[in-house]
Structure to design on (282 residues):
């Protein structure tokens, strides 16, 4: 597995203006071991900060997740479900040590979460695990397109945003905080976090991925080129990335995000979202 190109850029803040710093996305990979991962920290919407010295709690958690992946990777024969049990356990320990508030009493809307897609390639097979709305597109040499993750997740978020962005600023933040409080609870939204029970909702997938396959591993901010903008199909996104590079696609993405006035119509909580993508050859 080879990483041919990487792009990662912060977007705008929840209520306008570009973010300071690196943003809430992270990526991590080990070409020799054949694995790669993208992490999309969930934007801070809670009433308190747990890691106030960090750029944001979302950035702190995404960085902690990336470091944990790199420092404690799975054994070659280790299945992904038990690996994620270890990952979440270690992340909880790291969060508990760093948080200024005990996790047990922190408001649920302030507990850190992140979307994640982790995938590993070996001997013509790709296995992946996803929590949340990060995803990957894989094209095999015979032209078939495989999808890792759930493409309906970004579409669902856009539909919700079209309604929520009609609200006042205060009502919008209240709605977002209430939604965050439903992360990793029954009948809620399952995502990487400090709750061990989230691992039982891990979505594991396997694809035939013969040598010569290629693909893009990305956060939902980069996938906006497909949904909601409809600028490219899955096949076109892969082809254009490999022809022109991820940087040109990022530039096009930001051009499509020039006007905050279109947020409610298009269906986006932020004019530009943090966007990360890895271009991979197998």
């Amino acid at each position: 597995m080879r990483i041919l190109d990487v792009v990662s850029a912060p977007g705008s803040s929840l209520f306008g203006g570009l973010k300071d710093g690196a943003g809430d996305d992270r990526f991590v990979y080990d070409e020799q071991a054949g694995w790669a991962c993208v992490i999309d920290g969930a934007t801070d919407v809670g009433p308190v900060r747990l890691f106030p010295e960090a750029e944001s709690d979302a950035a702190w958690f995404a960085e902690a997740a990336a470091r944990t992946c790199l420092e404690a990777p799975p054994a070659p024969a280790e299945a992904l479900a038990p690996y994620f049990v270890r990952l979440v356990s270690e992340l909880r320990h790291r969060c508990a040590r760093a948080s200024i508030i005990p996790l047990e009493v922190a408001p649920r809307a302030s507990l850190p979460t992140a979307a994640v897609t982790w995938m590993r390639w070996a001997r013509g097979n790709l296995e992946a695990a996803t929590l949340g709305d990060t995803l990957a597109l894989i094209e095999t040499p015979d032209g078939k397109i495989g999808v890792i993750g759930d493409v309906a997740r970004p579409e669902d978020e856009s539909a919700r945003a079209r309604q929520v962005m009609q609200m006042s600023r205060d009502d919008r933040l209240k709605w977002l905080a209430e939604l965050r409080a439903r992360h990793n609870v029954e009948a809620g939204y399952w995502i990487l976090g400090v709750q061990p029970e989230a691992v039982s909702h891990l979505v594991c997938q396997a694809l035939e991925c013969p040598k010569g396959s290629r693909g893009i591993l990305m956060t939902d901010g980069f996938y906006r080129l497909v949904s909601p903008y409809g600028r490219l199909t899955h096949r076109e996104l892969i082809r254009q990335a490999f022809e022109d590079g991820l940087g040109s696609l990022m530039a096009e993405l930001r051009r499509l995000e020039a006007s905050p006035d279109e947020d409610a119509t298009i269906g986006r909580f932020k004019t530009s979202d943090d966007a990360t993508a890895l271009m991979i050859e197998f």
The radius of gyration is 18 Å.
